[in-house]
Amino acid sequence: MLFSTVHGQGPALFVLHGLFGSADNWSSLGKRWGSQFEVHLIDLRNHGRSPHFSTHSYPEMAQDLLDYLKDKNLSSAHVLGHSMGGKAAMNLACLAPQAVRSLLVADIGPWAYPIHHASILSAMQTLNPAQFSQRKQAEEAFAQSGLDAGTRLFLLKNLYWEGNTLAWRLNLNALANHIEEVGKPLPQGTQYPGPTLFVRGALSSYIPVDSEPRIQAHFPQAQLQTLAGAGHWLHADQPEAFYQVALDFFRE
């Protein structure tokens, strides 16, 4: 069963992180939304503290979420997903529309994306955390990867102590072996008829400004909103604005 951290009381709200992320990335916002919702910050398969599998695909992630709903005795939930989590949320909504009360997708579209994570995967696979006795040593070694400081900091949140040994918490092998799955589009002909909001970062190229017709082919009620001053990690770039946009949408 997927691992989650739950905050607050009220209607269920699922929050789904992006590739190489975890539920912990959403802790601050999740606690705030918990004033009006029962917020489930969920680690998707092969990430965080959720189980590791040999496969990694959106249909599997959608089924994982349906199993999670059943395990928590929930019939439905509001769902928010960012990047890969947004694709998982879209697949869930189209597979089981009755399970999704409303859908917010953060800076990802339903179309295909080229794979662009080779440098990240190479850097993570090159680093062997087990050879270090201190976290600082691993951080210093990772600084030689060529990745920018912000990306390194984000990825290093996946390091944890397994006894006296440092290790990657995510299932790096499965993600590398199935990285092409992350860019796959939503299946043709699938639709979710419920309330839907796509939020794009003004500084991000993931969702072009003229994308509404392509989005509405799958989500006929969808609206598209742009968050000023935000890139792809819009919830980190503009946390207060993103918090309010999501709160207003889910309260409606």
General description of the model:
The chain has 252 residues and is α/β, with parallel strands linked by helices. The chain has 2 domains: 4-113 and 185-251, Alpha/Beta hydrolase fold, catalytic domain (Rossmann fold, 3-Layer(aba) Sandwich), CATH 3.40.50; 118-177, no CATH class. The chain contains 11 helices and 9 strands. It has helices at residues 27-33, 58-71, 84-95, 118-126, 135-142, 149-156, 172-177, 179-182, 212-216, 234-237, 239-251; strands spanning 4-7, 12-16, 38-42, 77-82, 100-106, 159-162, 165-168, 196-201, 223-227. The strands form 2 sheets. A 7-stranded mixed β-sheet has the order 1-3-2-4-5-8-9, with helices on both faces. The chain has a two-stranded antiparallel sheet with strand order 6-7. α2 crosses α3 (84-95). The protein is globular, with a radius of gyration of 18 Å.
Question: How do the helices and strands line up, and which of them pair or pack?
Answer:
Layout: E1 4-7, E2 12-16, H1 27-33, E3 38-42, H2 58-71, E4 77-82, H3 84-95, E5 100-106, H4 118-126, H5 135-142, H6 149-156, E6 159-162, E7 165-168, H7 172-177, H8 179-182, E8 196-201, H9 212-216, E9 223-227, H10 234-237, H11 239-251
Helix pairs in contact: 2-3
Return the CATH topology of the largest domain. Answer: Rossmann fold
- How many H/I helices? 11
Biggest pleated-sheet summary: 7 strands, mixed
- How many strands? 9
Count of individual domains: 2
What is the arithmetic mean of pLDDT?
97
**Helix/strand order, N-terminal first:** EEHEHEHEHHHEEHHEHEHH
CATH superfamily assignment of the largest domain?
Alpha/Beta hydrolase fold, catalytic domain
Question: Can you tell me the CATH class of the largest domain?
Answer: Alpha Beta
**What form results from the Cα inertia axes?**
globular
The share of residues in helices is 25-40%
The CATH architecture of the largest domain comes to 3-Layer(aba) Sandwich
Radius of gyration: 18 Å
Secondary-structure-based class equals alpha/beta
Across the major sheet, the strand order is 1-3-2-4-5-8-9
Low-confidence stretches are: none
Strand content: 15-25%
Distance between the termini: 31 Å
